[in-house]
Design brief:
The complex is a heterodimer of chains A (247) and B (329). With 247 residues, chain A is of the alpha/beta class. Chain A has ten helices and ten strands. In chain B, strands 1-2 form a two-stranded antiparallel sheet. Classes of the chains: A alpha/beta (247), B mainly alpha (329). Chain A: Keywords: ATP-binding, Nucleotide-binding, Transport.
Chain lengths: 247, 329
C-alpha cells in the first residue's frame, strides 16, 4: 500500500470544538486514481475531516499531505490551486450570479492577465460550456443560479468545481436531497470523470450508492477511521456493523 | 428598451457636459459640481460595496485624507496642486492597502463598525496634530486659479469632477466584466465558497478596498483645492460616508449607474432642503426617511426595480424542444 503513490494523506489529524473531539487523530491515505468512499454514523466527523483537508478550518494537531507536499494550514484557495476541489453538503452556488458567471468564478492560477481578462474570454467560456454540456444544463447558462431546481444547482456546483481542473474531487453527500434518476446520472458522471484520471473522495449516507460506486471505502467512527477496504469487505466488518447498529 | 438603455447614458452625458452653460446662475453650477463630486464618490464606494457587499460607512476617511494630503502638500511643501493631488491619492491608496488587510478580515456588521472607527480615528488624529494640520481651526488652501472669479472656478471644478466620475464609472465597468469582478461578486454571495473555488478572497477584497479609496481620495483632493478651506469635523464626518452609501443603495448597488442616479436625487435634494429649511439638521431627517422608504420598498434600488426581468421562478429540467421531441417519440 505504501508503494502506490498516494494523492492525499493525513497524519494524526485532530480537531476539537469546545471539548468535543470531532476528529481524533485521523490517519488516512486515499487510493490515487480511485473513487474513495467515506462513510460513518452521523457526528462521526466526516464533514469536519473534509473541512480540515480543504483548509476551511485549521487542525489542532496533525498534518495533511497532498502528493507529498504539506498543505496543512494553507488557505483554502491555495489548496484549490494545488488541485483539490470540493462540493458542499448543502449545495452552495452563487444564487444571484448567472450559471455562466458561476462557472467563471473559479480561478486556477492568480495571474493578473487572466484576472483582468473579460468574462466573455472565448477559451474560458468554451471550457465552461463544455462542463455545462456534460452536466446537461448548458441551456441554462444565462439564468440566475437561484432560479434553477435543486438538482440543477447540484450539477452546477459540480461543474463549477470541475472548471478549476482539480485532480482530487471531494464530494460531500452528492446524493443528498436528489431524486433517484439524478443520483444515477451523478454516479455515471463520477465514474466517467474517474476514468479520465480524477481521484474522488465521496462522503455519502446512501449505502447503495457508496457500495456500488466506490473502489475503496473508509469507515469513520468518533472522529477516526475504524475500518477500510473494498466495499464487500467493509460491509462484513464486525466493527462497522457495531458502529452503525450499536450491537 | 435596448435603444433606451444605450441612448439614455449618452444623452445624460451630453446634458452633463452642457450643464454649466444651460443653467442661469453660478449657484447652480456650484450645486452641479457638488452633485457630480458625490456621484463620483458614490460610484467609487460601489467598487467595494456593490461588488463585495462590504458596506463601509467610513469612506469619508479617504475623502478627508485625500483632502488634507493635498492641502498639506500645497501649503506646507509648496508642491504644485496637480502633483499634490496625485501624490496624496497615491499615499491614501497605500494606506488603504494596509488598513484594508486588517479591516476586511471581519465581515458584516463588524466591518461596518471597523469602518466607522477608522473615520473617527482619522478625525481625532487630524484635529489633535495641530502643528501640522492646524487642528480644529482648519486648513486654508490657496486657490489654484487666482485669476478666475468664484463662478468660473466652480465651472472648472465641475468638469474636473465630471472627469473623475467618468474614470470611476469606467473602472467599475471594466471590473464588472472581468473575472476579477466575477470573483468579487462571488465574495458577496458566499465568501467561503469562492475561496474553495480558488479565489484569493483576501487579496481581492483588499484590492477593491484600495481601488475604491483611490477615487474617493482624488475627490477629496479636488475638494480641498476647490473649497480652499478644510474643516476636520466636516471632511471626516460619518455623514459624507453615509451619503455615499445612501446614494448607492437608492440607485442600486448592482448597476453601473445606480450610485450616479442616487447622487442625482440625494445631492440636489440635500441642497434644496438646506435652502428651504435653513441651516438646520432637518434635511438629514428627510434623507433618513428616503433611506427607510428605499430599503422597505426597493431593497435593490431604483434601477433594479426598473430593469427587473421576469425570469420566472422555475426553469424546467428540459427545454420545451426536448420535451416536444420526447412526446413525438
Amino acid at each position: 500500500m505504501s508503494d502506490t503513490a498516494s494523492s492525499l494523506r493525513t497524519e494524526g489529524l485532530s480537531k476539537s470544538f469546545g471539548g468535543v473531539l470531532a476528529v481524533d487523530g485521523a490517519t488516512v491515505e486515499l487510493r490515487d486514481g480511485k473513487i474513495n468512499g467515506l462513510i460513518g454514523p452521523n457526528g462521526s466527523g466526516k464533514t469536519t475531516f473534509f473541512n480540515l483537508i480543504t483548509g476551511m478550518i485549521k487542525p489542532d494537531a496533525g498534518r495533511v499531505l497532498y502528493r507529498g507536499r504539506d498543505i496543512t494550514r494553507h488557505s483554502p484557495h491555495r489548496i484549490a490551486h494545488a488541485g483539490l476541489g470540493r462540493t458542499f453538503q448543502l449545495c452552495r452556488i452563487f444564487p444571484r450570479l448567472t450559471v455562466l458567471e458561476n462557472m467563471l468564478v473559479a480561478v486556477r492560477r492568480t495571474r493578473l492577465r487572466e484576472l483582468l481578462a473579460g468574462l466573455r474570454d472565448k477559451g474560458e467560456v468554451e471550457r465552461a460550456r463544455h462542463w455545462l454540456r456534460r452536466m446537461g444544463i448548458e441551456h441554462l447558462e444565462d439564468a440566475e443560479a437561484r432560479d434553477l431546481s435543486y438538482g440543477q444547482q447540484k450539477l452546477l456546483e459540480l461543474a463549477a468545481v470541475l472548471m478549476a481542473e482539480p485532480e482530487l474531487v471531494l464530494l460531500d453527500e452528492p446524493a443528498g436531497g436528489v431524486n433517484p434518476a439524478l443520483i444515477d446520472r451523478i454516479v455515471s458522471l463520477v465514474r466517467d470523470l474517474n476514468a479520465e484520471g480524477r481521484t474522488f473522495l465521496v462522503v455519502e449516507h446512501n449505502m447503495d450508492m457508496v457500495m456500488g460506486m466506490c473502489d475503496h471505502v473508509i469507515v469513520f467512527d468518533r472522529g477516526a477511521p475504524i475500518a477500510e477496504g473494498p466495499p464487500s469487505a467493509v460491509r462484513e466488518d464486525p466493527k462497522v456493523l457495531e458502529a452503525y447498529l450499536g450491537v | 428598451m435596448r435603444i433606451a438603455s444605450r441612448g439614455l447614458p449618452l444623452l445624460v452625458a451630453a446634458l452633463a457636459i452642457a450643464y454649466p452653460f444651460l443653467v442661469p446662475n453660478f449657484y447652480l453650477v456650484y450645486a452641479g459640481a457638488l452633485t457630480v463630486m458625490y456621484a463620483a464618490m458614490a460610484t467609487s464606494w460601489n467598487l467595494l460595496g456593490g461588488f463585495t457587499g462590504y458596506v463601509s460607512l467610513g469612506h469619508s476617511a479617504f475623502f478627508g485624507l485625500g483632502a488634507y494630503g493635498t492641502g498639506l502638500l500645497v501649503v506646507r511643501a509648496g508642491v504644485p496642486w496637480v502633483v499634490a493631488l496625485l501624490a496624496s491619492a497615491l499615499l491614501v491608496t497605500v494606506f488603504a492597502v494596509v488598513v484594508g488587510i486588517a479591516a476586511v478580515r471581519v465581515r458584516g456588521a463588524s466591518f461596518v463598525i471597523v469602518s466607522i472607527a477608522l473615520v473617527s480615528m482619522m478625525n481625532l488624529v487630524v484635529q489633535g496634530w495641530r502643528s501640522l494640520t492646524g487642528g480644529s481651526t482648519g486648513l486654508q488652501v490657496p486657490s489654484p486659479f487666482p485669476d478666475l472669479h468664484r463662478g468660473q472656478t466652480h465651472m472648472v471644478f465641475f468638469y474636473l469632477f465630471l472627469a473623475l466620475l467618468a474614470l470611476a464609472l469606467a473602472s467599475w465597468w471594466y471590473v464588472s466584466r472581468s473575472r476579477f469582478g466575477a470573483g468579487l461578486r462571488a465574495i458577496r454571495e458566499d465568501e467561503d465558497k469562492a475561496e474553495s473555488l480558488g479565489v484569493p478572497t483576501a487579496a481581492y477584497k483588499v484590492t477593491a478596498f484600495a481601488l475604491s479609496a483611490l477615487f474617493v481620495a482624488l475627490a477629496g483632493g479636488l475638494y480641498a483645492v476647490w473649497f480652499g478651506s478644510l474643516d476636520p469635523i466636516f471632511v471626516f464626518s460619518i455623514l459624507i460616508g453615509s451619503y455615499m452609501v445612501l446614494m448607492s443603495l437608492l440607485g442600486g448597488v448592482r448597476h453601473l449607474f445606480g450610485p450616479l442616479l442616487g447622487a442625482l436625487i440625494v445631492a440636489p435634494a440635500g441642497e434644496y432642503f438646506l435652502i428651504a429649511l435653513g441651516e438646520t439638521q432637518i434635511h438629514l431627517t428627510a434623507t433618513g426617511l428616503v433611506l427607510v422608504l428605499v430599503v422597505l420598498f426597493m431593497p435593490d434600488g431604483i434601477l433594479a426595480r426598473l430593469t427587473r426581468r421576469r425570469a420566472g421562478p422555475s426553469i424546467p429540467d428540459e427545454t420545451a424542444e426536448q420535451r416536444l421531441q420526447g412526446v413525438a417519440q
